[in-house]
Amino acid sequence: MTNAATFYVTHGGAVRGAVTMPGDKSVSHRSVLFGGIAEGITEVDNFLESEDCLATLGAMRAMGVRIARPSAGRVVVEGVGLHGLRAPTHALDMGNAGTAMRLSMGLLAGQAFDATLVGDPSLTRRPMERAATPLRQMGAVIATSAGRPPVTIRGGQALQGIEYTLEVASAQVKSAILIAGLYATGTTIVHEPAVTRDHTERMLRAFGVPVASAGGRIALSGGQPLKSTQLTVPGDISSSAFFIVAGLLAADGPFLIRNVGINPTRTGILDILALMGADIRILNRRLAGDEPVADLEVHRSALRGIDVPEHLVPLAIDEFPILFVAAALAKGTTRVTGAEELRVKESDRIAVMAEGLLQLGADATATPDGMIIHGGTLHGGQVTSHGDHRIAMAFAIAALRSSGDIAIGDVANVATSFPGFADLARGAGLSVQETR
Ligand code: S3P
Prior knowledge:
five-stranded mixed β-sheet; 2 domains; 28% strand; UDP-n-acetylglucosamine1-carboxyvinyl-transferase, Chain; 13 helices; 26 strands; alpha/beta; binds shikimate-3-phosphate
């Protein structure tokens, strides 16, 4: 959605001290979805109260799940059991959230009632057949609008387990199939062409459902109840990526990022930055429930361009906007290939990042599946995020090393994943003003 909210970021400066990361978006979505269909009360700590996750929470409430939010980051879900959801009285609005929509398609495929899923203009442009196709093979009746939302799911279908190889490496599609598999007879098996985030598998196990996972094959048996549990959401490594790159570009001494989820299916950003010469130290490794977390100590580093290994792309898929900024300020050439999925995110992140980087004087060429960036310097200027939260935040960080101030338009959607970003960035030393 186009809107007037703008970030004005004064150029230069440094970051210092410590920041603590808010809860992970992917894990927060799953916590209320699985808590809602579990038997008993699930308590969640450090839930990310962003617009995207609140869309999933709102959808579960609309289907009759009582969910209390007694204090910041704490959510108490009164699970209704696998078959206890009720028909919503209106279309379920998933806002900007692809995860909310695709996971809900899997959930709704197994219900006794009909439901319709809608979203904002960005989500309404995004492909949904990738989830609808395997769900139909399981017996679901799903209509999309020329492949896109609105999506209508007709209830009352008997689902059967399938064995399915994903066409794109997508954790959302994998999760939709596994969630539908809970409602299916027999075994549901997903093969993934490359490793994708495994939060669904880990969390289902926390809810007492055995999930077998080895060598890119994930399997579960249908009809098993979820047993309520206690969850602590790890900090979001995708949100921390902005602060990691800020520290690499402009830390004034060691810069500490606390409570970062380091699930190995999410740490592609750390591996890619390490190849670029980043000095990031992983301290205080521990567990938040079933997810590993750590604190990251970031040191200012001279980054160099690299050819990003393609196997790391799905493990860093949400971090490319800020990686492109890092590459534009690195020495030498960075080539990203095999990243065509970026074209169907909240915006076309290849086109939108190339447009903004060019406006700031970078030498960046968009390719069908990535970008070629000859690193150098950035000047100030005006860019637009095209309503994409991660693009807005990436260009805010770029101002730490640009030679002039940067104005970023259309930034209201930062609240979809990181509502406190501007405050946290100011606390760390960035000079960000937000006008509405
Ligand atoms: C997500 C999976 C990824 C990611 C998205 C969150 C998830 O999407 O980009 O932000 O929570 O499963 P894909 O499944 O399309 O790769």
